[in-house]
Amino acid sequence: MAEVPYEDSQLYKIRHSAAHVMAEAVLERFPAAKIAIGPPIEDGFYYDFDLPAAITDDDIKWVEKRMKKILSQRHAFAMREVSPAEARAIFHDQPYKLELIDDLVNGRVDDNGAAISEPAASLTVYTQNNFTDLCRGPHVESTRDINPKAVSISLRPPAGAYWRGDEKRQQLTRIYGTAWRNPAELAEHRRRLEEAIKRDHRVLGEKLDLFIIDSMVGKGLPLWLPDGATLRDTLERWLRDIQIERGYLPVVTPHLGNIELYKTSGHYPYYADSQYSPIDVDGDEFLLRPMNCPHHCRIYTSQPRSYRDLPLRYAEFGTVYRYEQSGELRGLTRVRGFTVDDAHLFVRPDQLLDEFKGVVRLIQHVFSALGMSDFRARLGTRDPDSDKYVGDSSLWETATAAIIDACEELGMDYQLEPGEAAFYGPKLDFIVRDVLKREWQLGTVQVDYNLPQRFDLEYVDRDNERKRPVMIHRAPFGSLERFIGILIEHFAGAFPPWLAPTQAVIIPIRESHNEYAREIESMLKSRGMRVKADLQDRNMRSKIKQHRRMNIPWLLIVGDRDVDARTVSLRLRSDEDLGAMPLEAFADGAAANITNQGQSACLNRTQS
Predict the structure, then answer these.
(1) Nearest Cα to 445, choosing from 333, 358, 348, 337?
(2) I want to staple 228 with a disulfide (CB 3.0 to 4.6 A). Which of 72, 210, 293, 604 is the partner?
(3) Are the C-beta atoms of 471 and 424 separated by less than 8 Å?
(4) What is the pLDDT of residue 532?
(5) pLDDT tens-digit map of 268-325
(6) Which strand ranges, in their side-by-side order, compose the sheet holding 78-82?
(7) Does the structure show a pLDDT above 60 at 2?
(8) Cα–Cα nearest to 45, from 130, 171, 146, 187
(9) What count of other Cβ atoms lies within 10 Å of the Cβ of residue 604?
(10) CA 530, 531, 532: angle at the middle one, nearest 5?
């Protein structure tokens, strides 16, 4: 049986209803408060308020206690349809609700005049106890469905939020909550939150000397330290080698381009709000590139193409730049400059299906090798009621059908998401679930008939006619910065040995063992391992503690017996002591672990 979408689940209704109960309690605590919106979210709900005074911990405790009291009284959630005039009368003293009513009644348009929502002739409100909210639902039938004896609610500390996400508008107080079906689910949620704090990539990034954000360089512009750069380089080399094996051709393009390039592609002004201002250079306007695909299109047009040349697969680790509001920046997962593991495939229509399947298999291989096997696919299609997309609708239908055919031939489940397409074509996104069961949108593959048309891309077919190629956009990682941030949290900084910036450290017990430690270091480096000998004048135990804290997979401790027998005493970062083993055996076992991309630092004793 297919999983019920979250928006249709009982848990969604519980959380949506709990948000209304929280708003009721807050209004009792702050009668002069103005209410904004309060939706369910992935693990709970929130509500935004314009409060007459700063909220305190005591207020939060009072609100939570009052919520549980309201929930115990079994109030029905009653829905009724009202006219716009009735709605304005109900919310006459609530300016944020009045603005929402106006938008619903008049319909909304974006900055380009495109319709976001159609005008509504009537509205719906929900009432429970003494609280009424403008809402389309859904809700539980009664607060008895979220009785505190059957479900636990926990309020998180308040945070700031701009009205409608606009930093020029009023800053509101956002209060978060979480609601579950039973206390056991809440306990598991709290455990995951605690684990997430331990795994925070911003904390681990500093602790493990991977990256820093420097205020003089700028917010959202990470600086990669040697170990972080090594991790990044390892990922790049690995994917580059895989791509070359699969027929990709490396290209390199500039970090900026003439504004006419992005006007032709449609990225400007479509992404104007997230682009940096044009730069005047000798009377011409240039942009820091927001996308790599227009550059690759121009490489394609640099010479005539025959049907025999296709498919052409151009790959580039290309850095792009987007303006993100300061409040939205977060470590590596939300930055202003990031490197996309980008590739663009130019194919004949008869090659599209096989090439698309090849890209999907590549993405599946990447996730599997990185221990991220729990993922699902989401097919983003065009919203027929929106004007934000470019290109002929028949081409969109052809592209969407090609993606569906590929998914079905691969036996891969996917979920349709209308309105989630790129502006130039449908896309298949891969949603990965990490060890904490959090979902991240990572790899993506898109079919595009529009950019080839905009850039007048052609090839000469076997019948000597000029034809238009189809374009496939793909990025298994999405962006290196975000992907590494997620990897850090997924592995809690304890990367598999093949990815670890330093794979082994040799720790001599005394100074007299330093020469043997250097010999081991040289021997392992000659086999391609990233190793170092710790020859500092410090206590052995303090060295072990430090390198375990830095999550070094293998600690090789050497003393008199090891020097005499040419062994190493192996200790894992987990502090598991594997005892003495011949140096050659360790080298062979470690090499096999790295080559096979083992997910743990354990060595098979029969192997080593």
Answers:
(1) 358
(2) 210
(3) no
(4) 96
(5) 877 777 888 999 999 999 999 999 999 999 999 999 999 999 999 999 999 999 988 8
(6) 78-82, 123-128, 131-134
(7) no
(8) 146
(9) 10
(10) 140
